[in-house]
Design brief:
22 helices
Length: 487
């Protein structure tokens, strides 16, 4: 017999919650990442940014003691720059890793996967430091690059998970780019400071840093994927069940397409993606080319040691820091463009991301490279070409930020795939272009080798100029952009 029959009082049936009410409940729920307090959001963002910086150090820190490492393992650079292979394999792994790892984190949750990847990356530092032969070092570093590439791209997933609007995301994404380029830029500086102890200590120091950060990562890193949190809450909160049931559950085949096929399709069928990839990849590759160029130029012209040459890379970092500061008013200009958008009133215009990048590319990148080229003479004080490098660093920061944000604004729901295509190009350029740097600087001479790079920069500047001029028309003809906008 039921309780109602005994008491004679009927128990009111809980009201059925509509799907709209269920969604509204989730939208205002305190565990929805969009509703987290700002300090919590920034703790997570700054942690992930710090990891990006420290992971980037691993990519390039071995460039300063590269000849010492090659000599230790009896590897000769006579016919080919074999000493650069540890960086090449790292970047090759970093090109592949995000295409596989990022969709997994996106669909199965950030926190658990991120912690596992971070522990694996930290563990790879042990065999890197203890490697007894060159082959072991290369194998371990390609694994480190594969895992590190995912960690380097994680903030691009975290930021849209916890900040809802473009205006809120501008500063975190700009800071992400700064940490991304700064890490690989400062790697040779770390190598310069530490490698006099031993080249292995360059890696021991990184092991100490990452090991010390493990408890911080465990405590601060939270699950940021709203759909994952919603699915877990729905098991104990019936009011959220309907909203959770509406979540997409992609098949493995769909995940593989999104991870590999779509970025490749975008890269080779979308001129915007292809040419912006070339522009950004050239800039990112320059950071790695300079790890080969600077030691040659400063050793031959000024008698700098490997350590002193590594410290010259600080000039690139200073330029990048100034570039970060310059991107902040550029972001404000972009937001103001919403007032003059006649096609989609109230929405900022993607081309408003580009004004700073055009002079940065022409004057900062090409101009800085010409400056570096024609100041590279023994009778010219070493600070003069170093100032040119600072202009190059400024341009690198501004350009990579502009490309990242322009593609995100233009391709909206396909932005992840488009950014993956750009990241693939960046890492492949960083992996393979520098292999030709030493022979190029030896064959052409310091002045014309850097001038050749400057001429390439001038040509690539046409990409943002054309988009600034005809970007709206070009976007209107893109099937991916039209579909993303529902046209």
């Amino acid at each position: 017999m039921s309780d109602d029959a005994v008491t004679g009082v009927s128990t009111p049936t809980p009201p059925k919650l509509s799907l709209e009410d269920s969604r509204n409940t989730w939208e205002t729920h305190p565990k929805n990442p969009y509703n987290w307090p700002q300090p919590k959001k920034w703790r997570i963002a700054l942690l992930v940014a710090a990891v990006i910086l420290f992971v980037g150090l691993n990519a390039t820190s071995v460039t300063t003691p590269s000849l010492i490492i090659a000599e230790h393992f009896h590897v000769a650079d006579t016919a080919f720059p074999h000493s650069f292979w540890p960086v090449t394999v790292w970047n090759t792994g970093a090109a592949i890793g995000p295409m596989i790892g990022m969709p997994v984190l996106e669909n199965f949750g950030i926190r658990r996967g991120y912690l596992i990847l971070y522990l694996i990356f930290t563990a790879t530092l042990i065999p890197q430091a203890l490697a007894q032969n060159f082959a072991t070092l290369l194998v371990v570093r390609i694994i480190a690059g594969f895992v590190g590439g995912v960690l380097q791209n994680a903030l691009e997933q975290v930021v849209p998970d916890i900040w809802a609007t473009d205006k809120q995301r501008n500063l975190p994404i700009t800071f992400y780019t700064f940490m991304y380029v700064s890490g690989v830029t400062l790697g040779p500086v770390l190598g310069a400071v530490v490698h006099e102890l031993s080249w292995r200590w360059v890696l021991y120091i990184q092991l100490i840093i990452h090991g010390a950060m493990i408890p911080v990562v465990l405590m601060v890193m939270k699950e940021t994927r709203g759909p994952i949190i919603l699915s877990r809450l729905a098991k104990t909160h019936p009011t959220l069940a309907k909203a959770a049931n509406e979540l997409p559950r992609p098949k493995i085949s769909t995940l593989l397409y999104d991870a590999i096929a779509r970025p490749a399709h975008l890269l080779f069928t979308e001129p915007v993606v292809f040419f912006l990839m070339l522009w950004a990849a050239f800039c990112f590759g320059l950071v790695f080319i300079m790890t080969q160029s600077i030691p040659q130029v400063y050793h031959a012209n000024y008698g700098f040691s490997d350590s002193a040459s590594g410290l010259v890379q600080v000039s690139l970092f200073i330029g990048e820091a100034v570039g970060f500061a310059a991107c902040l008013p550029q972001n404000a200009y972009y937001q103001c463009s919403a007032k003059r958008n006649k096609v989609e009133p109230g929405i900022p215009i993607p081309e408003a991301r580009l004004p700073l990048s055009i002079p940065a590319s022409l004057l900062g990148l090409a101009g800085g490279l010409f400056w570096y080229a024609w100041a590279s003479f023994p009778h010219v004080h070493w600070m003069v070409p170093t100032v040119g490098l600072a202009f190059v660093g400024f341009a690198i920061m501004v350009i990579i930020t502009a490309v990242d944000m322009y593609i995100t604004d233009s391709y909206t729901k396909y932005a992840g795939s488009a950014i993956a295509a750009v990241a693939l190009g960046e890492n492949l350029f960083a992996a393979w272009l520098p292999l030709a740097a030493k022979s190029m600087y030896t064959t052409l001479g310091f002045q014309w080798a850097s001038s050749l790079l400057a001429f390439v920069a001038v040509v690539l500047t046409m990409a943002p100029v054309v988009l600034w001029w005809k970007g709206e028309v070009i976007r209107g003809k893109s099937p991916f952009i039209r579909e993303a906008k529902g046209v």
